[in-house]
Amino acid sequence: MTKFNLNTTLEQVRSALNREDVTAAIRILEDLQQPQQVRLIDQLNTQDSADLLEGLSPEASADIMEEMDPQDSADIMEVLDPEDSANILEEMNIEDQAEIMERLDPEDSAEILSELDVEDQVKLIKQLAPEDSADILAELNEEDQTEITERVDDAALSRILDEMEPDDAADVIGDLPESRKERILSGMIDANDVRPLLIHSDESAGGLMTTSFLTLRPAMRVQDAITAIREWHPNSEMPYYLFVVDSERKLVGIVSLRQLISAMPTKSIGEVMSTDVVSVRVGTDQEECGRLLKKYGFLALPVVSEEKKLLGVITVDDLVDVVEEEAVEDAFRLSGVTDEESVNSSIFTSFKRRMPWLYINLGTAFAAAAVVSIFEDTIAKIAILAAMQGIVAGQGGNAATQRIAIVVRGLATGDVDGSNALRILGKETLLGLLQGLGTAIVVGAGVAFWQRNLVLGMVMALAMMGNLIVAGIVGTGIPMLLQKLKIDPALASAVIVTTFTDCCGFGFSLGLATVLLKYLT
């Protein structure tokens, strides 16, 4: 047997990796004994180590990583795909799993944990220290959170939630069965910080805010404020400014850390603070909070009561999540499905959630068919109309769908409101006219040439122009009207608008053909 020489083997592996021949490097690693493999991996950089371990079986990779320094193993798992990391973790004992996971960033740990089976997730969460479990649980999606909390006993869950930010803990508790909520709260040390958040809707400012924040008083000196911040030990979510309240906890000002650091230590907070503070009421919808974040570029929003008393703070990380969730929700609803459904939903769940909208679409299809049936005699005499009417209706639907997407987004971001609704409606109607003219010329000329019938070309051109004007009006106006009626425009607009464009498209093309029938035959 050839004697193992670390430097020679290392040079061979690096040479293979430099040639991008990972397969050759893996073969060299596989020919070594496990202690030799560990020594070799220790000498490589993190990316090269990850490339090699990725090529081994999960069992072999786990055996090597269990002998390595846990921090080095954690560094490698940060580079590996979460699924590959999870496969390796499954082959390790629970103690080594925990040692590695607690050295990863919570975001990376959550990604890896979500790839494990739920039973393995629960075992690992129980093995970790409560503060590590709390950080990871806060980063998991709602579905994984629910599956884990259902299987963790009350005492352990209470300890974990005590280590969470109050707003994150409230989110977890809010999804628990009513019969269990009070048991969990009674086992928590910081339950009083969480209880006030549970009375607010999840989609309101009160449901998003945290009650863990530091406030200053106007009479405080700058040096005392800086000392208070040091003693508070702020976490990474703390914004770079603090809010100032009076003796009744009414919000009176805001001061940034830059202002504190650059101000004279003996100055009062009242002298350096800004009194121009943008805040939101506790019942404000989360979409409005997201719009304010975007408009002003804030890192945090103060939440106040009707009496302007400071109740909590919404941090930027929570609002970014809100913006993303709302965008996903609107995208799903424009397609007639809910954001609660996924590819992993059961057949029964998917059937139950999708069928109502299919039935509604079926009703609108019958409405369009009813319009067509009025002109049966005309179609019987000019059969080509049966094919061409779909062109007019389809183009109208396409044009309207473009407007729905733009207007729904504008309503969500606040770019469309009562102050500019009529102007936008007028602009989109004029755009519909221009689109109609441009499309009508092409359609009219094409049909006249194809069918050798100038009048038929004119009929299709006029029908197309009329339907694109309708598309401009209803594609813009319907979402605005639904918003006014407190109905989600993303959910209902498409069905209503396409009904208009289908019925009008068929009506215009067949109606004009009926009027001009003697010239067409």
Describe the model.
The protein is built from 29 helices and six strands. The chain is mainly α and 521 residues long. It is 69% helix and 5% strand. The longest helix has 31 residues, at 421-451. It has a three-stranded mixed sheet with strand order 1-2-3. It has a three-stranded mixed sheet with strand order 4-5-6.
Overall residue-averaged pLDDT value: 88
Cα shape: extended
Structural class: mainly alpha
Count the DSSP helices: 29
Order of the strands making up the biggest sheet: 1-2-3
As a percent range, the share of strand residues is under 5%
Q: Spans with pLDDT under 50 lasting ≥5 residues?
A: none
Reported for the largest beta sheet, the result is: 3 strands, mixed
Radius of gyration: 32 Å
- The helicity comes to 55-70%
Count the E strands: 6
Terminus-to-terminus distance: 96 Å
Give the topology, please.
Elements: H1 6-18, H2 22-30, H3 34-43, H4 46-55, H5 58-66, H6 70-79, H7 82-90, H8 94-101, H9 106-113, H10 118-127, H11 130-139, H12 142-151, H13 154-162, H14 166-174, H15 178-186, H16 191-198, H17 205-208, E1 215-216, H18 222-232, E2 241-245, E3 251-256, H19 257-262, H20 269-272, E4 280-281, H21 286-296, E5 300-304, E6 310-315, H22 316-334, H23 347-373, H24 376-381, H25 385-413, H26 421-451, H27 454-484, H28 489-515, H29 517-520
Parallel strand pairs: 1-2, 4-5
Antiparallel strand pairs: 2-3, 5-6
Helix pairs in contact: 1-2, 2-4, 4-6, 5-7, 6-8, 7-9, 8-10, 9-11, 10-12, 11-13, 13-15, 14-16, 21-22, 22-25, 22-28, 23-28, 25-27, 25-28, 26-27, 27-28
